Records
---
Amino acid sequence: MAPLSVQDVRDLIIDQLANGTYAVGDRLPTSRDLAKQIGSHRNTVAKAYRALADLGLVTLMPGSGTYVADLVDRHRHPALSTQIRGEIESQVFKARRLGIAKEELQGLVGEVIEQAYLKEKISGAFIECNISDVAAGISDIETYTGLHLEPMLLHAFESDPRAAVAGYQMLVTSLFHIKQVSELTSDLSLPNLRVLGVHTQPDEQALYAIAQIPAQSVVCVIVSDAQSGTRFVAQVNAVTTVKTEVLILPSDEEIRHLAGRAKALICSRSRAKQVRSLELSSITTIVLEFHVTQQSSARILDVTLGRQGNGEKLGGVHGGSSAGEANGISSAAVFRRDGARAHP
């Protein structure tokens, strides 16, 4: 491993000042002690301390030590900008050594900037039928794209679509709800409102656990609505042959009763808390969660950035919208309201 440079040590301390490791007035380790801690040379640390002093972050007091003079504040201090510039320079020179053309590099950097700051430009909401799946969908999409969507429950959207979508440029929902959402927005005459359907996939570990359930066993499926019940039974039947019984928004007593003769309980994310609270240790409990795919998330980013792909035109209405098509190939159905009703 290459030894730490002066810039590396400086940036390490800047990070510590930014995250609260040190407070104003704290004495930093001696150059000798810090060099031992991080595997650097004493002279390198001493130079890093002087660089920090030039930025006004530390005070060098000969014979006494190095003290924190100021904390990193992104609103008033150039230290973070200096740090970031150094990192950018390092990567730019690396790209030049690798033979990447200036124009190509500028394009790559531009895409990264657009993605990183997208949340400040796009106002969107993620719609699902329960708060657990809303939170999970938002988290999945933000993890893959950096885009943060606001939560919206399906029943709240259905009760007053116009009020629900006010101020939003984009609505995102799973393909299982895309038909409902697109039809309800079709009569609002909001041509700039985009409706995107994302494909969700079941958790592989949960499917593996379901596949281990002995054939012809009784399995209890616990969900929050009938549509989810149909979806879960289909997933179970795809990996094993069992006898399924579905409970929709059951009471604790109903779950205990069925658990008495079932081999396993398979519950949705939204019912997991209830099932776990019952502490049914004598029966296998599997939480079958669905996650937004990375491919669908990438398509959301493409649409919001105005990029086109796979022959799609943003002004049209594309992709399947029925629950049956939710298990198809399309990973992100794109709808744009032009005042006309969407045709699946």
---
Amino acid sequence: MFDVDGLRIYENPMTTKSHVTDLHHLLVQTCLEFMKKHKLTDIEEVHFSADGLQDGLKYMEWTPGIDSSLDVIGYQKDKEDGYPQRCRIGFSM
């Protein structure tokens, strides 16, 4: 256990730093491969969140109890002044 801003944080005894690193690598690599395949050269950031995964893990499929969100952020040049403008597409399921 360790303390962050007055909150007690417990380390998960089953999930190692190596597991988290592997998952992180997989998510980033999947984003890069998807962007390359679909020629999405304007994407700069991807934010992903999912919770309620334990129920889905039981059935090995997306179940109604899983909440997720995805935000994709990119930049395009403004037509008037040429400066980059932030563009966002996001949704929750």
---
Amino acid sequence: MLEQKDLDALRGMMETVVGKSEASMTKKMEEAIGKSETSMTKKMEEAIGKSEASMTKKMEEAIGKSEASMTKKMEEAIGKSESSILEKVDKMIGKSESSSLKKVDKKILKSESLILDEIERTRNILEKRIGKLEDETGELKQIYRIVKIDTENTTMLLKMYEDIENRIGRLEKAIFI
């Protein structure tokens, strides 16, 4: 049977291994999230820049056409242009938001999957180690039982030897008296 200090040493080793694993996983997770945030920020800035350039170009064309062709109906054309632009902006922003959210969701799911895989791998390693410890504990119990039986047998043999010596001593006294 293992002594308390051996169990404490094993616990200490397990806590060290688990602590290192947790620190490593935390660091990897923080790095992955940092990379993901940087990438998404860059993509959002690019998409917004393109959207602004496109919208600016469309707005200038619509206003130019409206001023050149319809001086009398300027208010109507500007009103139509504004509502059209607002709808387009709303649609583009909606698409941009939807696309960004999908990309963020994919990255988060990928990160979660990686983390869960690593946790599962660590769990499997720890289960294997615990299984080995249980096997070794079983072997130690068997050895302990064998040693205990051996000790009991030796004790019985010594007792039998002492009994025989006593009997021989009594016989010698009885014979030589």
